Amino acid sequence: MIPVLPAFWAVIPAAGVGARMAADRPKQYLALGTRTILEHSLGCFLDHPSLKGLVVSLALDDPYWPNLACASDTRIQRVEGGDERSGSVLNALLHLHAQGAGDDDWVLVHDAARPNLARDDLDHLLSELADDPVGGLLAVPARDTLKRVDAQGRVLGTVDRSQIWQAYTPQMFRLGALHRALADSLVADAVVTDEASAMEWAGLAPRLIEGRSDNIKVTRPEDLEWLRLRWATRT
Fold first, then answer.
1. What percent of the chain is predicted at pLDDT more than 90?
2. Domain boundaries, the chain
């Protein structure tokens, strides 16, 4: 029996500049095959039948977005991004609320520069968390030996990797709960690096759903080159 997947909104924070890529434009607008990284990151959601709509948070003076074919897609709404990821996501959630989305609606937040999300992973996340009281995120168990170091780079000890996972996206939470967690953490000036950490700060325990390790985030030039070589073998 094929499981019925819950309907969801998608939020893509895409206002960053990606300075570590040392490129002539924000990394989400670099080419990967015939489309940009951002277009690939959006594509997995736009192709999904359970999508209710998508909000992308962009820099106010973004000159690249209007040139993308998907910019005219009526399922996509644009909002102004914040100085940090949390602000960009919060602006998108406020927009969804203003459009009539409910507190209990599921929202999936995905990195703009994570273009290799597999449909199977997305469906698995939706299926596993459909009735979860908190929500959760795709993640991958740490595979390498991990070290704690001091300020001089000297090893202080080895970390037990059996309890360490790498947090990926999408991250899936109820609209109302995520909105409150992000807003309250910003008021408290708490350090939150993703949506899950905001929920943790609010006292909740997100669930980790194991996903594919190739759902990588493009951060450095070698990440993009790895994806280009990997995708070249598909044809």
1. 87
2. 8-232
Q: Quickly tell me which residue has 């991250």 as its tokens.
A: 171
pLDDT of 235 over the 50 cut? no
| CA 79/CA 159 separation, integer angstroms | 41
What is the greatest pairwise CA distance in the chain?
56
Please say whether the structural domain 8-232 has been given the CATH code 3.90.550.10.
yes
Residue 6 in tokens: 């819950």
Distance, C-alpha 40 to centroid of its chain: 13
* Angstrom distances, CA of residue 49 to CA of 5, 8, 53, 131, 221: 9, 10, 10, 19, 33
The CA angle 34-36-37, to the nearest 5 degrees, is: 125
Torsion of CA 7, 3, 138, 189, to 10 degrees: 40
Calculate ∠ Cα 68-55-139, nearest 5°.
Answer: 100
d(CA 76, CA 51): 11
Residue 72 tokens, joined = 């005219």
Please give the order of strands across the beta sheet that includes 207-210. 76-80, 51-58, 8-13, 106-109, 165-174, 135-141, 207-210
